[in-house]
Amino acid sequence: MELPFDGRSAGIAAYLYKKLKEKGKPLGIRDLFIGATAMANDLPLITLDKDLLALEEFGLDVKLL
Fold first, then answer.
1. β-pairing verdict for 45-47 and 62-64
2. What's the rounded Cα separation, in Å, for the pair 20 and 41?
3. Which of 16, 26, 33, 62 has an alpha carbon within 20 to 30 A of 43's alpha carbon?
4. How much is the pLDDT for 54?
5. What is the 3-state secondary structure (H, E, C) of 10-29?
6. Taking the C-alpha atoms of 58, 60, 61 and 65 in order, what is their torsion angle to the nearest 10 degrees?
7. Integer Cα distance of 16 and 58 in angstroms
8. How many CB atoms lie within 10 A of CB 6?
9. What is the tens place of the pLDDT at every residue in 25-50?
């Protein structure tokens, strides 16, 4: 499934970037975009990347394989 990185995703990514940077836990831009796209589309994120677990506190359902 392909999902667009649209305006809503961009807004969520900007919010996540700001909040994670304030906490001293920044994520890479690709991880932010992937997580924000999943959040914008109300989808869980299935990944091998444990860094994305940081997005659970913002409501993203992250499943590690």
1. parallel
2. 21
3. 26
4. 97
5. HHHHHHHHHHHHHCCCCCCH
6. -110
7. 8
8. 12
9. 999 999 999 999 999 999 999 999 99
Question: Is the pLDDT at 1 greater than 90, yes or no?
Answer: no
Length of the chain equals 65
Choose among 12, 5, 3: nearest CA to 43: 3
Report the candidate in 30, 31, 38, 29 with the shortest Cα–Cα distance to residue 9.
38
Model pLDDT for residues 50-61, shown as the tens digit of each residue: 999 999 999 999
Residue in the block written with tokens 């836990």: 25
Residue 57: both structure tokens together: 């506190």
Residue type, 31: D
